[in-house]
Amino acid sequence: MQARRPGLAADQPAIAEGRVVKHFAISGACGAIPARGPLTGLEDDEDGMSEQSFKRFRRRRAPAAAAPSADGGTVAAEPQQKTAPAAPPQAQLPARLPEPWDRIRQVPFDTGAEQAERLPLVSRFRTSPAAKSFDLLRTRLLHSLKARGWNRVAVTAPAAGCGTTFSAVNLALSLARVPGSRTILMDLNFRCPGMARALGIETQGDLSAFLSGSTRIEDQFVRPLPSLAVGLNRSADQDAAELLHSGSCAEALDAMMLRSGADTALFDLPPVLEHDDTAAFLPQVDAVLLISDGTRTTAAQLAACEKMLAGHTELLGVVLNRARDTDSPLN
């Protein structure tokens, strides 16, 4: 006769002690096991619940989210798969604005156009002695500036009519042909502006407003070539010396060089011996290029210019324009 454990019904077979401990350790405290039948979906062996039935029982007992069914009941929802968190949207950076040099307006420019009022531009005649002379002057100028770390050059003459504007414009055009370079040319001869006529560009600028700090380089200058920016004057100003003396002039030029990233800046200035405009502007430049006329400039005038410049700035050299007994206008 088989012994019965306390708490078991008379007609319920005993379950081996080891099986009970094993199932209890896996499932924890569990309630009454439902009766066998088609509704349970469990298969028991002769001694009780099998291992496979118990695992299936645990899956059925596991809590699951319920979803409403069509007939008003609930059905168990399928377990949700873990998904990786969505990557945060990439920060939208503001659009990058063009640098000030690229914002300077470009204007049509034709070095070969025939205009009665335009000065002769040697860029049109690349094989002429004049063009070769300006290229040689450009190379010597760049070597001197680079050796000393300079980038601002005043172009002036002892007296009017020596060819200052002619030399400044053609030298700037030669500098602009250097690959990867940026050149600025400014018409600071307020008493007799002539650079717009020399280039054949319609005069629209007002350098007085620029030097006083009320306008920026991209609003004031124009670019006849991608690597050349020019500042033009619309009208004459007989009180230019006071403006060139002002602190706003120095600040405007410093900001111009910083914002533009120019390699070289040329300033077309009035004659040294006729007005004090050039003397007032000397603190803003690194050196002076003096233009002399082989048909009218005297040695006494050159000596007077050197004396005036001494102690204020460096004299890079003297360019002889309209030289006699030579095939080149520059010497």
UniProtKB/TrEMBL annotation:
* SUPFAM superfamilies reported in the protein's UniProt record: P-loop containing nucleoside triphosphate hydrolases
Spans annotated as Disordered = 35-95
- Record CDD domains: BY-kinase
| Key words of the record | ATP-binding, Kinase, Nucleotide-binding, Transferase
Q: Which domain of life is it from?
A: Bacteria
The biased composition feature labelled Low complexity covers 76-95
User: Which residues constitute the signal peptide according to the record?
Assistant: none
Example GO molecular function: kinase activity
- The protein depicted here goes by the name CpsD/CapB family tyrosine-protein kinase
Q: Give the source species.
A: Leisingera aquaemixtae
